[in-house]
Design a protein that fits this description.
heterodimer; A: alpha/beta; 2-enoyl-CoA Hydratase, Chain A, domain 1; eight-stranded mixed sheet; two-stranded antiparallel ribbon; B: 316 residues; alpha/beta; 16% strand; globular; ClpP/crotonase-like_dom_sf (chain B)
Chain lengths: 286, 316
């Protein structure tokens, strides 16, 4: 009864005035998506978008990732100008892609190329989830396949950072076939002795997790990343049961034997350097 | 006829009418032979019109027809001495996929396919043809064996998709599918894949990387079910019909997109109307494909497989 009398339910919603919105310049501060603590953008940039308070790994853009790993000025991009067409004449698809090109400054949800990581040469691909949720269409499949072929030709290792909601609906079965295309490319590369390292970042699901993301000689993930084949909602509807909180997290996948390691962002460059060195040394002995 | 699809109703009505008149003629003195002949001619035209102009959504219904022949039906008609083998050697035996060896016209082959049930009881046992990781790992085990003993592989694709369940995720559904895609790319024996019903997404593709990919005329192959696509794109699963048209999922669409090699014709009214004839149609295509592929060396086979997938996709 007393609880009811002292109920603190708000009767009004607080709408910030136009003035108060202007007070904090956009982009100066950022709130952690998990612990909601507020930080200066600059501070978060230094920690590579990892929350200094709770360790939550916020998404990292393709070029920020490249900057965080490659020796300055060594990264050379491949197929930078390749862009998406609308193979199924899907209504509204061209506009959506154009909008994301403007929003992100990228031509598609992936950057591929090669460069030096602490002096070690490697071929590289990084997906960017801010472009159509990193969904995989023809361009992404083609750029990955070409990067792998380039790596094979040049006897370079291949490192890929994945971030994708899965297949790109608007490209239908062509999107599905990119899973096959990239996997065939990886098989050829692997048979030639090539080293492939896959790092799954948040989120890596659907057709991407069920193809190249899972096909590294080493499969890593960033802490807390969502990794899985089917979506949580679909599984819950299918099996009519609530799934545990940690379902399909990187930690869940590690526990179930699906990952080699979980690697925090700050340790990534060192780990990759060591791995590249070990394989280079092993190869020169052979 | 147990299951009548919406677009078939005019045909069924006419057929019933003809049967009625025939019964009447045989039981009474009135001779209606002339009327019957007229109606039968009309039925012929109507059937040709309806089945000759199927819309994508009609084909989805055909592909999902409860009486549609399954992998096992075709195995019985096309091959001899089929021996089924079970288990993935890691976890269990997934009956949503069957695998074994058989003779195809005196040549030993490995046959693998998704297997739906014929009734509810069998469907529960076979999980409605929706595999878990152990199903894909069983399939891969048999493909590797086929390679070792130099047997061509024939895969029948017929699934709504890989099973979206908790246990499937825990045991690595993604890895199992990905592994199959990669390993199938490197098998040094001919692989012929045939979509006989629904080809649902990665769960279908995991038996679908090969040298030749064919589709039955009324089968579908898609990145997501029309219902799923409608829910994702327009937040309304009820718009599945629209999605079926927009997503380009029929054999004709895929042929146009250069994803498949051949469209295998179906018996009029669908594969379930005449399983034997349907099996003959499939048999002819398998025969042609095997002849063509057996001419290649192992190296040529792999190189051509890569060339085949390399060119799929459109971009600028």
């Amino acid at each position: 009864m007393a609880k009811f009398m002292f109920s603190k339910r708000k009767k009004y919603a607080t709408i910030p005035s136009e003035h108060s919105k202007v007070d904090v310049p956009e982009g100066l501060m950022q709130k952690c998506d998990k612990c909601h603590k507020i930080f200066y953008r600059k501070e978060l940039k230094k920690t590579l978008n990892v929350c200094p308070n709770c360790g939550y790994h916020h998404p990292l853009g393709a070029w920020e990732r490249i900057e965080s790993l490659f020796d300055e000025g060594t990264f050379k991009e491949w197929d930078q100008k390749m862009t998406t067409v609308n193979p199924l004449d899907f209504p509204g698809y061209d506009e959506k892609v154009k909008k994301d090109m403007q929003k992100t400054g990228l031509n598609e949800g992936i950057v591929t190329g090669h460069g030096l990581i602490n002096g070690q040469a490697t071929a590289f691909a990084v997906m960017d989830s801010s472009f159509r949720m990193g969904s995989m269409g023809s361009v992404i499949g083609e750029k990955i396949a070409r990067a792998i072929e380039n790596a094979k030709e040049a006897s370079l290792p291949f490192i890929i950072f994945t971030a994708s909601g899965g297949a790109r609906m608007q490209e239908g079965v062509l999107s599905l076939m990119q899973m096959a295309k990239t996997s065939v490319a990886i098989k050829r590369f692997s048979d030639s002795g090539g080293l492939m390292i896959s790092i799954m970042t948040h989120p890596t699901t659907g057709g991407v997790s069920a193809s190249f993301a899972s096909l590294g000689d080493y499969n890593f993930a960033e802490p807390g990343a969502l990794i899985g084949f089917a979506g949580r909602r679909i599984i819950e509807q299918t099996i009519r049961e609530k799934l545990p909180e940690d379902f399909q997290t990187a930690e869940f996948q590690l526990k179930h034997g699906q990952l080699d390691r979980i690697v925090p962002r700050e340790e990534m460059k060192d780990l990759l350097t060591t791995l590249l060195e070990m394989h280079e040394k092993g190869r020169s002995k052979a | 006829m147990k299951h009548v699809l919406e677009f078939e109703k005019p045909i069924i009505n006419l057929k019933e009418k003809i049967a009625e008149l025939k019964k009447f003629t045989s039981e009474s003195e009135l001779d209606l032979t002339e009327e019957i002949t007229t109606l039968e001619k009309r039925l012929e035209e109507l059937e040709a019109d309806v089945y000759g102009n199927l819309k994508p959504w009609d084909r989805v219904q055909m592909a999902r027809h409860p009486e549609r022949p399954t992998t096992m039906d075709y195995v019985e008609h096309i091959f001899t001495s089929f021996i089924e083998f079970h288990g993935d050697r890691y976890f269990g035996d997934d009956e949503a996929i069957i695998a074994g060896i058989a003779y195809y016209r005196d040549q030993p082959v490995t046959v693998i396919g998704h297997q739906r049930g014929k009734d509810t009881k069998e469907n529960i046992r076979r999980n409605f043809g929706m595999p878990h990781p152990e199903g894909y790992r069983k399939a891969l085990r048999h493909m590797k064996q086929a390679e070792k003993f130099n047997r061509p592989i024939i895969c029948f694709i017929d699934t709504k998709g890989a099973y979206p369940g908790r246990a499937a995720e825990e045991r690595g559904q993604s890895e199992a599918i990905a592994r199959n895609l990669m390993e199938m790319a490197g098998l040094t024996v001919p692989i012929i894949c045939i979509v006989i019903g629904e080809g649902g997404s990665g769960g279908a593709l995991a038996l679908g990387v090969g040298d030749q990919l064919h589709m039955l005329e009324n089968s579908t192959y898609s990145v997501i079910s029309p219902e799923g696509a409608a829910a994702l794109l327009w937040k309304d699963a009820g718009q599945a019909k629209r999605a079926a048209e927009t997503m380009k999922i029929t054999a004709y669409d895929l042929k146009q997109l250069h994803v498949i090699d051949q469209i295998i014709p179906e018996a009029r009214g669908g594969a379930h109307r005449d399983v034997k004839q349907q099996a003959d149609y499939i048999d002819q295509v398998i025969n042609q494909s095997l002849k063509k592929l057996s001419a290649y060396t192992k190296e040529e086979l792999l190189e051509r497989r890569w060339e085949k997938y390399k060119v799929i996709g459109e971009f600028e």
